[in-house]
Fold this protein.
Amino acid sequence: MPYKNKKLDFVIKIIIICNYNRFIEFLDKGEEKGFFPIQAPLVHVSFMDGRWRAMFTNGRHRYSVFRDMGAKAIPVGLDKNNLADATKLGLIVKS
């Protein structure tokens, strides 16, 4: 049976909620200024455990906020190898 630490799980959930909420606050402040740069989330695509997965190396909270706001497509950063795999899998949308 895998080790389960309920206290650590709780702390991690609090950190995730805080990061998510802080990004929403950042967007609200930027909206007042009219323009603000946002670094694209960094994603890599890999074949693991018999299936393809897209995983975030940075920016999962930024992605989640935009997804939850109803964005249909979100710009992300990929390296060349991952771009080829993501294109083959139909994950790339041309704007």
About this structure: The chain has one domain: 6-88. Residues 6-88 form one domain.
